[in-house]
Amino acid sequence: MTSAARTGGLRRDATARYRAVLDRLYRARRAGVRFDLDRVRALLERLGAPQAKVGRIARIGGTNGKGSAVAFAEAIARASGLRTGAFTSPHLSRFAERFRIDGAPAADDAVADAAERVFAAAGDRYTFFELATAIALCAFADAGVDVALLEVGMGGRLDATNAVSADVSAVTGVALDHQAYLGTTLAAIAREKAGIFEPGRPAIVGRCGEPAGEPLLEIAARQAGARLIRAPASTPGDWPLGLAGAHQRANAAVAVEVVRALAAPDAAAIRAGLAAARWPGRLERIADDPPVVVDGAHNPHAARAIAGEVAYDVLVLGAARDKDIAGIAAPLVARARAVVCTEAGPADRAAPAAQVAAAAARAGAAPVEVEPDPRRAVDRARARAHTGVLVAGSLFVVGAVRRHLLDEPADPIDCAERM
Do residues 241 and 249 touch, judged by C-beta distance below 8 A? Predict the structure, then answer.
């Protein structure tokens, strides 16, 4: 057998194994959302405690900005010469995006190696996100990372990422979101988010949410016996950031404190990392003539944060069924000359385009159209735009538009889980 033939066979084998992983995860998704940290700890114990085989662990939660904070922290750590693993959710095109090693998605065979061990230990009792968390820790242990950065999926106290002890935990901020699971008040949500703080460990409180939430997080950190660190409201204005938007300075400030607690980076590494950070789907310009900017803002606080950051006259809007669609639409529709409403994601999660359109019509005077297919929706928006197009409200919609305009490869099975 020739070398080329062997390489082709290995590639097909990796592809088949990765496809089998997606099949298994798609079945697990039907289990929905469950919270049981003891189950996750038992799974990790059966796997040989992979979390003990990585260097140091940081856990980052918060209503908005936690993924951006992970991206900034990852870039700073890499600029400091550290090997990094970053676990984030959801993915935009491929499940492997959730597991980054040194800034790049893990290879399909690395994901399959970790996932096969997890599935063998788990049986059929675990949810999608519980399995994904275990896969991340196994993949990072296999890669020998110096720093593992774990983005909380939802809440914090009962999130699967809280099944392991972290050297430092951070909450970027709190705002209203996921009320069906976390509670209907800022106080209730803050309690859930602050549940990741550990006695004697650094607990970083950011300023990326509603101001009223900050003292609630600080009180919770003290009650937990954690070492409270208040992140600044911003990084210095002359420090360039790799992510667009004024709100990203608060996320960057959290990331700086996280890496300082882990590795004491020097000023040059901090500045280099902040400038190098990348995080797809967050005020990301993906096309020109006219400009198309995508952002996954999926709650009112996030929508308000991005509304004034982009020059656009046509809005493409989608949302999940369980979101405050009117609250998301209000600040975004107000700046639009026209709105095209669409939908994407699992049928049980995505709000129908007509439902989104009804909320958009109530939010402003701009004419509203319905186009369920996000590809046709953005094409229609581009044909009408003079200034630019903003795509927002749903990371599922953002992912579909990115795949369409950037011709990005996608998984053969959509096992996306919005967490």
Answer: yes
Q: Tell me how many degrees the CA angle 356-358-364 measures, rounded to the nearest 5.
A: 100
Closest CA to 19 of 411, 370, 419, 418: 411
Omega of the bond leading into 90 within 30 degrees of 0 (cis): yes
Predicted model pTM: 0.93
Reported confidence tier of residue 1, pLDDT bands at 50, 70, 90: very low
Q: Angle at which helices 374-384 and 395-406 pack, to 10 degrees?
A: 70
Place of tokens 């509304």: 307
Q: Which two tokens stand for residue 283?
A: 């005020």
Provide the token pair at 369: 């159209």
Q: What is the mean pLDDT of residues 113-138?
A: 96
> What percentage of the chain carries pLDDT values higher than 90?
82
- CATH class entry, domain 284-406: alpha beta
Helix (H) / strand (E) element for 316: namely strand 314-317
| Total count of residues recorded for the chain | 419
Query: What's the distance, Cα to Cα, between the start and end of the chain in Å?
Result: 45
Range(s) of the chain covered by CATH 3.40.1190.10: 3-276
The domain 3-276 is classified under which CATH number: 1.10.8.470, 1.20.120.530, 3.40.1190.10, 2.60.120.260? 3.40.1190.10
**Distance of alpha carbon 249 from alpha carbon 244, whole angstroms:** 9
Structure tokens at 181: 């699971």
Name the residue type at position 130: E
Structure tokens at 28: 């697990």
Tabulate helix, strand, coil % of the chain (nearest 5).
45, 15, 40
Sequence-distant (6+) residues with CB within 8 A of 158 are: 35, 36, 37, 192, 195
CA dihedral 306, 307, 308, 310 (to 10 degrees): 80
Portions of the chain given CATH number 3.90.190.20: 284-406
